[in-house]
Design a protein that fits this description.
The chain is an alpha/beta fold. It has helices at residues 18-31, 71-81, 99-112, 127-132, 141-157, 194-203, 220-236, 269-280, 302-313; strands at residues 4-8, 35-38, 86-93, 117-122, 163-164, 169-170, 187-190, 206-208, 212-213, 216-217, 245-251, 253-254, 266-267, 286-290.
Length: 319
């Protein structure tokens, strides 16, 4: 399989509009990107004490007075605007939504997009959002996520779906149409903890860590040990060692200054290409990239310029 490139479509900015999202999606499709993904939040509490795992100080970056486009509804819209590019969530916070309803929505998204759905899954980190959604499952969110994924698969693949679990029971129902993709849309498990690796090994089609968001910074030489751990867990789960594909998510910044503490995927074109080859050497064949506008005062349209440069100057070196 060749390498594929996806990008994160920003959902949480003051200048995120329907037209901006549609324009970026169509531009990415025209540039040859393979996948677009969106993050997932439903509501943003005004007071958050939970630790955000992708900020050095652990402080949430999400502002309740800034719009956040919910991913599943937005992707349904983009399914009708695009023709080729795959559509995904990075990541869907699985415990936030009732599992049967979520399975149906995801199935319809795959049907309406012609089989273009990729589902990133995660357990969530913001306890305050769980509470705002009327959920008391934050402490057991890992177990809830595992069970709901199994519910999804049962509803998508079984003629007579049946599931008996701690958090959900399903029987004597029909749920058609099924997803176009068989046996179901690919499930990419997000996160870099050992629990996430175990989830990927047992239930995932691929593992998707974010690796350039301090303190979660994983250059190829650091990521290697986690890949080795994933392979061990996959075999222990009774699956083939290479049953779980490898993805990698990171921010791309073109920067010629060459600082001593340069992070992966930040640097010159040549340095970024070298970084990508390093991940490829570990078996990573799918990348989710963040082309973030450099500041709140920079229009979201500037993201397209970085995407275009990456498509013209970096992508050809890996395809």
């Amino acid at each position: 399989m060749g390498v594929s490139f996806g990008f994160n479509l920003p959902a949480h900015r003051t200048d995120v509009t329907v037209d901006a999202i549609k324009s970026l999606a169509l531009r990415a499709e025209g540039l040859g990107f393979d996948l677009l993904v969106m993050a997932d939040h439903v509501v943003l509490p005004k007071h958050v004490n939970s630790t955000y795992p992708y900020a050095p100080d652990g402080v949430s970056i999400f502002q309740p007075n800034v719009p956040f486009f919910e991913p599943l509804s937005t992707l349904l819209f983009l399914a009708g605007c695009t023709e080729r590019i795959r559509l995904g969530v990075n990541v869907l916070i699985v415990p936030y939504r009732p599992p049967v309803l979520t399975a149906k929505t995801l199935s319809m998204l795959d049907v309406l997009s012609g089989g273009r759905l990729t589902i990133g899954v995660g357990v969530g980190w913001m306890e305050e959002e769980f509470l705002a959604l009327g959920l008391d499952t934050f402490a057991s969110r890992g177990a809830v996520t595992d069970e709901y994924i199994e519910v999804f698969k049962a509803l998508w693949t079984q003629d007579q779906p049946r599931f008996e679990g701690r958090f959900c029971q399903v029987a004597e129902v029909g749920m058609l149409p099924r997803p176009v993709q068989t046996p179901h849309p690919p499930i990419w498990v997000g996160g870099h903890t050992d629990a996430a690796l175990r989830r990927a090994a047992r239930l995932g089609d691929a593992w998707l860590p974010l690796g350039t968001f301090p303190p979660a910074v994983f250059p190829p030489e650091v990521l290697r040990s986690k890949v080795e751990r994933l392979r061990e867990l996959t075999v222990a789960a009774g699956r083939a060692e290479d049953a779980v594909g490898l993805c990698f998510g990171g921010v791309v910044v073109f920067d010629e200054s060459n600082p001593a503490d340069r992070m992966p995927l930040r640097g010159s074109v040549e340095q970024i290409i070298t970084d990508l080859h390093g991940y490829r050497g570990l078996g990573v064949d799918q990348f989710i990239l963040y082309f973030l506008p450099p500041g709140p005062g920079v229009a979201i349209g500037a993201m397209g310029e970085t995407m275009e440069r990456f498509a013209h100057e970096v992508m050809p070196a890996l395809r």
